[in-house]
Structures are given as structure tokens and as C-alpha cells.
């Protein structure tokens, strides 16, 4: 049934508050915007604050979204789509016109509103924590030896850095606050307890290391929740892949270490053996991989090679695995004066 407009009396079935669309729209402001809108940007990382969260985006997009988010249509209207035009006033102030298509019942119309977007510098929470040396956990990397070798230190820290970098791609709260060289190892200060816990397990599994954990109460949040800092100790074993170890009364090349244990290769017959994790502490290092001797190969047969002794240049016969790929030089170790080939 058709109605009529209370203002002009025209018959129509498109009434809003008793008025036809022409009378309803007459001299009516359809959109409102505040005189100005503040847009906060972090001076350190360059991200913009949007709806309570800092996000990475182009400045033009951030300015446009800030104005769009502030626009309010009248209660009878719904914004279908919107576009913006931006005119810079200076480095920090921008005039933004927001052009909207509105639906009012079955009717569509256009409207425009303007505001000044003021870009204000601040520091986001994450950057504030970074610059303030914030940390929640400490990863204490130690070794069973007197000191952590430079090679092993670089290897472990590379794993730590790669893990944190990967975590930061999905969680910006993940970062390394600092690293400190300390007697016997290195301390890594981390922004999150969860990152320290995961790294502790990762390194423990990879190196078959001893692990320990301790916590310290450091205060309370505004909500009264207790805040802790957690220290994760990773004590690397004396043995590492590539070392010559003694197990029982025999000597082996350590070829693998994992969370379940390790693998060793006999220097006598080159047979492989699996060691369960509980038995790993029984491995005793006879020679580090860096201490192995290197010699030139003179000749070779199926399972034997001749090398030149680097000490006196005499010829030494060494048993090697059948079909072993032998290069111009090989590594070997002397045990009780007897030289043994160390497999590749």
C-alpha cells in the first residue's frame, strides 16, 4: 500500500520517518566526521596504530583508513562503499575527503565529509620493550668443558637466531634483547618465556644436552598477576658429532646426536651402533674433531689405502670401508700409537 509524505503530501511507498526521500534528504547532513582525527605512528618501526594494534602499511593507506574509521552515517543510513582523497597540509597534517555511497532503505545516495588527519609520533609497546632491554627469559648455554669453543658457539647462536627470526614472522613480540659472553658459555636474553622454553627443548634434543629451569618473581602486573623471569640452562655435552669417543673399551666415530640418543661407527670394522639417550653420558671423548690428523693419500685398493705420515713422512696402511669415496687427503686418529682411518 502506498503512503504519503507528511511534508509534501506526495504518494509514495518509499518513506523514511514519514517523509519521501526528497524531503528526507533536504538540508540533511548524512555523514559526520570530527574536526580532526589523530593517527599514531611508531618512530622506531614505522608501524601505524589501527584499532588498538600496530600494523605495517603505507602512510597513504593509514591516513585513509583513519578517516574512514571515524566517519559516522546517520542512523537511517548504511555505508555501502567509500573512497578518500588526501591533500597534505604539511608533514603531519592531511585534509581527507571521505566520499561514501549510502543505502537508505531501498534508496542509494552519495555523501561526502571532511576531516584533518593529524599524524603523531609515538613508540609502540614492542619497540619500547626492545629499547628498554625488556626480557622474560634467559637461555643459558653452557658446556661440560672448560669453555665453549668459538665454532660451537657460532653454531648454537645461529640456531637460536634462526628460530627467533622465524617466530617473529608471526609474532612481533618475539625478539632477542641481547647476548652476553660469560665464563663457560653465553647468555641469550629473550622477550618471551615461551621462546626460551621452546629453544631449550630444541637445543636439548639436537645436542642431547642436560636441561634445567628456574624462575624468579620480579613483580606484579596492574591486574595483580605475578610476573616471573625464567632461566633455562642448556648444558651441552662434551661430545659432539665428528668426535672420536670411547664406549666400553672400544673407539668410535660419533656420527649423530638426537633427542633419542646417538649413533657411533666403529673404527675397527666401521659397523654402526645406536646408543640410547640414557647411555649417552657413557661416551667419553678421546679426540675432538678439530684434533684429528690429516694426511695425503698415496694409493688405495678396495678396502685399504696408503697415506703419508705427516710426522715423519713414512707410509702407513689404513683399513677403510669397502667402496669408500676417498679423496686426495683423509682424516685419521692415533690410538695407543696405532693409526685408524676416520670415515667421511
Can you walk through the features of this model?
It contains five helices and 27 strands. It has 344 residues and is α+β, with helices and mostly antiparallel strands. The protein folds into four domains: 3-125, no CATH class; 133-236, no CATH class; 240-289; 292-344. A five-stranded mixed sheet has the order 14-15-13-17-16, covered by helices on one side.
Task: Explain briefly what this protein structure is.
This protein is about 15% helix and about 45% strand. It has helices spanning about 20-25, 60-70, 125-130, 150-170, 195-205, and strands at about 5, 10, 15, 20, 30, 35-40, 50, 55, 70-75, 80-90, 95-105, 105-120, 135-145, 175-180, 185-190, 210-220, 225-235, 245, 250-260, 260-265, 270-275, 285, 295-300, 305-310, 315-320, 330-335, 340.
Element layout with pairings:
Elements: E1 3-4, E2 11-12, E3 15-16, E4 19-20, H1 21-25, E5 31-32, E6 36-42, E7 48-50, E8 53-55, H2 59-70, E9 72-73, E10 78-88, E11 93-104, E12 107-122, H3 125-131, E13 137-143, H4 150-168, E14 176-182, E15 185-190, H5 193-207, E16 210-220, E17 226-236, E18 244-247, E19 250-258, E20 261-266, E21 272-276, E22 284-287, E23 293-300, E24 304-308, E25 315-319, E26 329-335, E27 338-341
Parallel strand pairs: 6-12, 13-17
Antiparallel strand pairs: 1-2, 3-4, 5-9, 7-8, 10-11, 11-12, 13-15, 14-15, 16-17, 18-19, 18-22, 19-20, 20-21, 23-24, 23-26, 24-25, 26-27
